[in-house]
TrEMBL record:
Record key words, sorted: Membrane, Transmembrane, Transmembrane helix
Identification of the protein by name: Uncharacterized protein
GO cellular component, one term: nucleus
Pfam families associated with the record: Methyltransf_16 (PF10294)
Chain segments annotated as transmembrane: 7-30
The organism of origin for this protein: Hevea brasiliensis (Para rubber tree)
Gene3D superfamilies xrefs: Vaccinia Virus protein VP39
Superkingdom of source: Eukaryota
Gene Ontology terms for molecular function: protein methyltransferase activity
Keyword Transport: no
Keyword Transcription: no
InterPro entries for this protein: Methyltransf_16, METTL22, SAM-dependent_MTases_sf
Amino acid sequence: MIGREPTGYVIILVKLSSITPFGVPLFFFLPDILLSDNVLNCILTFWETADFDLTGQLVWPGAKLLNDYLSKNVEMLQGCSVIELGSGVGVTGILCGRFCRQVVLTDHNDEVLKILKKNIELHAPSVNPNCCAELEAERLEWGNSDQINQILKRYSGGFDLILGADIYILIQSSVPLLFDTVEQLLCFRGEQCKFILAYVSRAKIMDSLVIKEATRHGMRMNEVPGTRALVGNLEGVIFEVFLE
């Protein structure tokens, strides 16, 4: 069945029981939030059952913000090596695979990584002619220096871009670990690397914490002009983050 899907569509495997409290599968909304018309459409299929932590199995509002931004600025992706933090089911990384040289998608959850690896198989250049990048999945728990060093050893050229969308929204303690990870990745390439963060504001305490941690880690956050927008009933914005 999958082999007969039309060319130019993104096939995304999702967990069958990834549903809202009202019984509506969250992924039914996926085609409406993804990308500009000229880039990708989406076909959904379902796989197995979900575990209790659905965080990485959902496509959060920040993904729409980031994917819209990337699809309008594909020139920044051309020929780049990209690492995505908190990739979840891999929608953003698969988009980047159309334009980048190499895309490494990361997550910490083993169940999510199973889905992610299957989606990568479906979008390998040998299977999908629209994807030109080498797509890889890696386990990465934020703040885990051993895992970060292993990734940097495996991809010894480092990365041109670090991507993240809505990736710290549930637990305040994850924010310092996120910026620990970003700092290590940025330091590997210095000025040749930047972090593109799609930020969705949900609480002022989180807004302040993100800015505080970026500053504490010696980073400068620049709001990208024209990217501030409503995502559903929330306000989102794209930041470019550099080492000072």
